[in-house]
Amino acid sequence: MAGLTRGPVLLRAAGLLVLGALTLGILGRGLSGLPTGVIGFVHFVDLAFHEAGHVIFGVFGQFLGALGGSLNQVLIPAVCTGYFLWHRQPAAAAVALFWVGENVVDVAIYAADGRDMKLPLLAEGLTHDWNWILSELSLRDHAEAVGRVIFTLGALVLLAALTLLALDLLRVAAAPETDVVSSAGTRDGKPR
Known about the structure:
This protein is an all-alpha fold. It has 6 helices and 2 strands, in the order H-H-H-H-H-H-E-E.
């Protein structure tokens, strides 16, 4: 049993530690400022999906075009999560779900800045999405409260990702050697 399951167990345990540390960093930062380090790099990847969302959802009107950036940056990792769940790859789904949570927190920071507009935008003269969105909804003066609600949702998604990975770790650790399917899609060294 130790031969086949040791690698997948160790990988999941390491992943759980890394995602746990990143989650603490994300949640500890709260609604303040832009991320740094590894999450800062992921933020720039998310930004590409955010900007694409304005174009994709813009065909449905100005409001959805403005909201589309935030929608798309959450939708892309959510689709990835669904794909991995559909294909019964819970460890990969947990990582993708973590990405969803990180994006929801990123959106929360942007929404909370909707009144004060202190975050830097990509270029001078651009519209702050959440300032515009919240103004249209007559909620601009409640931007921080809206951000806190979105942040709480993001925190719950991050915790769900950690839970999913922890449950998968327990499943793999408890599984008999012949029942463990590696991330390469093999069982006992043979393709499934």
